[in-house]
Amino acid sequence: LVTMRILGLETTCDETAAAVVSCDGEGRGHILANEVLSQIAEHAAYGGVVPEIAARAHVESLDLLVARALARAGLDLSDMDGIAAAAGPGLIGGVIVGLTAAKALALVAGKPFIAVNHLEGHALTARLTDSVAFPYLLLLASGGHTQLVCVRGVGDYIRLGTTIDDAIGEAFDKTAKMLGLPYPGGPEVEKEALRGDPERFNLPRPMLRRDVPDFSLSGLKTAVRLEAERIAPLSATDVADLCASFQAAVVDVIVDRSRVALRAFHAAAGNPTALVVAGGVAANQMIRAALQRFAAEAGLRLVTPPPALCTDNAAMIAWAGLERLRLDLTDDLTAPARARWPL
Ligand code: KG4
Ligand code: ZN
């Protein structure tokens, strides 16, 4: 195997990010720089990401982040073996910003260009951090996506299950908003849940035991709203108990869906080498602990990349670009920006 270095850009949502990632002669990945600028402050007043504000913020800070990433890595554009950008799925204005910048850099520097699927970035991160071998079972849970995937190889995915309505992170965010907690809601709900009673409210566990590992979360969210309306005005204890009860329901659903997905995985691809959890929701300690118990029961290694690599970042885009470049899977400069792009 040859050593390689890639510059990666990520602009599909509300994080502007640039990173430099390398692989050594053994194929192991190394993060040489991983710069992220969150726009949370710019969107907080609106309780969610405003696409137009996001796109403008990406334009304003992306070149600075690229310069910073290269400086931190102690490298120059000419040292790169390729330039990668997330070409979707995501908010189209932001995607266009990152994609156009990466194409321009590739053209100027005369380097290969790689259009990366943002979801593939999340899916392959465990190979950067833990050298996980194919095939593995992936739970990808973020603000925009909820999928259980059989990862057989680079570009070779079987989607076993997905959500038929809200993403898990989105359910956390909407629940938080309903209860008057700030955006993004996941960490806030988790914090409240720590001092709440998970058994006070008997909330539904949608899809439990269904034999296709899909998710449905909007009914759970509605159940929280109805309980909140029933007992309003809410005390601090009420909010904490609602958060704890909501989180307990989500945990039950995630473990049940993962168990069903593992059965489907066996049928499709034999034994996985690991259960990998990625996406912003993987930062949740309760969810991690429950999946750890499930993985141990199933005799599987649980791999959860560190939180900074679970939420949106450019190291995962650079790494996915590197994995593709290694296989000569490069793209030409006409590669389109895609708002929707299933794995
Ligand atoms: O992967 P990510 O950074 O961005 C997307 O691609 O969506 O995920 C962000 C999502 C948000 O919905 C956020 O509320 C959720 O991940 N999240 C959490 C936690 N930290 C972030 N959800 C539950 N518990 C957490 N600790
Ligand atoms: Zn993401």
From TrEMBL:
Classification via SUPFAM superfamilies: Actin-like ATPase domain
UniProt GO molecular function: iron ion binding; tRNA N(6)-L-threonylcarbamoyladenine synthase activity
Binding site for substrate: L140, A141, S142, G143, G144, D173, G186, E190, N284
Residues the entry annotates as binding Fe cation: H118, H122, D312
Cofactor list: Fe(2+)
Keywords: Acyltransferase, Cytoplasm, Iron, Metal-binding, Transferase, tRNA processing
Subcellular location: Cytoplasm
Listed name of the protein: tRNA N6-adenosine threonylcarbamoyltransferase
